[in-house]
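Please produce the structure of this protein holding zinc ion.
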Amino acid sequence: MFDEKTLKELAAITAQGPILSVYLNVDTTQRTRDEYRLELRDMLKQIQSEADEADIEAARRYVELEYDWSGRGLVLFSRQEEGIWYAFSLAVPVRSGATVARKPYISPLVKLNSLYGRYAVALIDRQGGRFFLFQMGELTVQEGTVGESVHHLRQGGGSSSPGRRSGSAVSGRKEAAIIQRNWRDTIKSLELFCQTHRPRRLLLAGNETTLAQVRELLPKALQKIVGGSFAADVEANEVEIRDRSFELIYELAHKRHQDMVETVVTAAAKGQNGIVGLDETLSAAHEGRIQVLIVAQTYHEPGYRCQGCGYLTTQKVARCPFCGGEFAEIPDAVEAVVSQTVEKGGTVEVISDELMAETKIGALLRY
Ligand SMILES: [Zn+2]
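Below is the modeled complex.
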């Protein structure tokens, strides 16, 4: 199972020789397995001259013989000569591509992790709730809680009592009390669920009236992580919940990214804790000052990495100003800073090019 820990582990890898990174989109409802195998062969052929034969063979063998085609995205990292091998089957689609470098190409994973990494959905009605935990788009935990039925009172009162009108006022009050109690119990269970599984975000699902009231009752800790809500029937199946939550997550990310770009650009303009531009970002990353890195999805720029201390720069200089080490040319300094930020515990947001047309890269700094 892919998680945040694995991402940090990948970010920390620097090999002596070329690592092969492969992303393969494998939605078998769209195309056949053979078509995907063919696509993989083509991709591997294109990087044949840069990659080790053993890694190309390992990737091919895995897809031919071991892969179970269960997910929508496949990610492989291989450097056989140094014992490096990772294979992840993801429940979310990826953009197909193969690259070769000294470090695993992790930007697409960083992006998916930020979107679908670890979130919960609470589907709540008047009687109880169902809670879902998703990791990288995959449903990993499902729990439910059921309180006292709300409907039996109304039905019971209606059929057994001849004085139906006066009876229904009483049962109406009773009903409201039961709903309140059910919601309190449901929220207690939800609190426990979130304490146990620690989702980064919580999405609420159900009918609008219920959710508006439930939201008021949530404790602060849960309110803080609520990202949004969507309408859903309490009987909705897992696939519906997953698909609706994907849509909402996508919308929320777009909004969050818009705000983030604005925050960074404004802070940079005011000379506060924001910076824009590659060289400034590389320097801040080296000092470990990056709290949030924002980067355009398809932005790449060649550069240099100090072989002594890892300092990244786009300027060709003879010796590292920090440690006196020698520089090695790297194909993508942008990817390198993404990796460095993840490794140092910063947050990375890979943002659509459309939102990053002017600011290709920037960051919010810790200090
Ligand atoms: Zn150095």
